[in-house]
Amino acid sequence: MHADILFRGGTIVDGTGAARYRGDVAVTDDRIVAVGALPDWVAGREVACADRIVAPGFIDPHVHHDEVVLTDPDMDCMLSQGVTTIINGNCGFSIAPLSASGALPQPLGMIVDDTAPRFASYAAYRDRLRQAPPAVNTACLIGHSTLRINEMDDLGRPADKVETLAMARSLDRALSEGGIGLSTGAFYPPARASTTEELIEMARVARSHGKLYVTHMRDEGDRVIEALEETFQIGREACCGVHVSHHKCAGLANHGLSHTTLSMIDKARHSLDVGLDTTPWTASSTMLNSGRHRQATRVIVADSTAHPEMAGRDLADIAAEWGTDLDEAVERLLPATGIFFIMDEQDVQRIMAYDRTIICSDGIARGEHPHPRVWGTFPRVLGHYVREVGLLSLEEAIRRMTSMPADRFGLEGRGRIEAGAFADIVVFDADRIKEAATYDTPIRPSEGIETVFVNGRESWCAFKNKGARAGHIL
Ligand code: ZN
Ligand code: CU
């Protein structure tokens, strides 16, 4: 039998959670055609995989690379950690459909540059990606806040009937054109005034397409319990599956609360489809004026348009230097993004270990000093939390990076090493895999990731991008 490529003699972790086994993987064109002991197969190219793990390429279900896939399509930050598929459009903010002109409100302005071309329909964005594909497969949620920005002249109030209908129509069209679900972000100013009823109306549209309601909840701190209850209510009333993004319990006063939130999710699952994802870090990252600096033990400025020279420095040091309080320093730095130390390590581990939790980076690849999660999330889980802490088995951790997100978001043919699946494959050294990105030096490719294939094309090898740009639009 003949294949294009044979991955020879690796240890296969197939993404389903099944125990690892020794075997070969045969790839022809963009598909895996055979898996197992394949001594009789020959191929134009063999990749020696002895003592290496051969796994499905990782799927990052929560990123903000909506525009980055157009402006920096080589996607080093994702390929270098073994990620072959990403889902954009999270937290209520998607690059499309965007008909509003002029300056964009934050945090949409962090994701979409004011001067970049706008896509009035999801189809226009999708077609643009098809013409010039990025290095990883991409799918996109449709953001409720983006719809609000399109349809409302005043974001500081609930949508009226006419506006709600216009948003519902626009969402319906975008989902027909290939959007893979709905995202909301009532935490952020553009949607803070939305009522639960408005969110239910949006969720009904998602439901009519068999898609999920994916949410950056209204609150992840002092009112995280109420926010979870609101999420469940929306799911129940719209009969729609719900997915809690980057679940966390933010702020010192709320440390330990994941005991309660996870048992609430457990209970809700009896009558509702509930899922969640999380990042393996105790610091979060978002716009600097999110109010989070008041809950954080430390804040690093990731990026500031007004004072670019402050990127990478502590907010407290900047305030001391300027002789201001933190609030005033934040004001002077805007528009800006920050890294906020607001979570408890025990909560992070408890949430990650929970059986429904998917791994995500929540990456915003902005400026010189982003959160290290942009470059280091997946190797951090496999190095620190699997090998060093023993929080999850390697097989289970990989399941939460592959078949689980693929099944959750309906990404067919992805997330498994099996005959017939797309040939998204990562080969890595389980003894060496480790993130190199830190809070001090956040832009660094990870260690231990050796070769990454996307749709059967070699895309990353030995710390080098191969320029394949083989991603599909999902
Ligand atoms: Zn978010
Ligand atoms: Cu996000």
Give a structural overview.
With 474 residues, this protein is α/β, with parallel strands linked by helices. It has three domains: 2-55 and 420-432 and 444-465, Urease, subunit C, domain 1, CATH 2.30.40; 58-290 and 339-408, TIM Barrel (Alpha-Beta Barrel), CATH 3.20.20; 291-338, Dna Ligase, domain 1 (2-Layer Sandwich). Helix content is 30%, strand content 22%. It contains 16 helices and 21 strands. The chain has helices at 68-71, 76-79, 108-111, 122-131, 144-151, 161-176, 189-192, 196-208, 224-238, 258-268, 315-322, 326-333, 345-353, 373-388, 394-399, 403-408, and strands at 2-12, 21-28, 31-36, 42-48, 53-56, 58-60, 83-88, 137-140, 142-143, 181-185, 212-216, 242-244, 274-278, 283-287, 299-304, 336-341, 357-359, 425-428, 449-454, 457-461, 464-465. Strands 1, 2, 3, 4, 5, 18, 19, 20 and 21 form a nine-stranded mixed beta sheet that branches. Strands 9-10-11-12-13-17 form a six-stranded parallel beta sheet. The protein has a three-stranded parallel beta sheet with strand order 6-7-8, with no helix packed on it. Helix 11 crosses helix 12 (326-333). The longest helix has 16 residues, at 161-176. The chain is globular, with a radius of gyration of 22 Å. Bound molecules: zinc ion and copper (II) ion. Residues 62, 64, 90-91, 216, 362 line the site of copper (II) ion. The site of zinc ion has 4 residues, from loops.
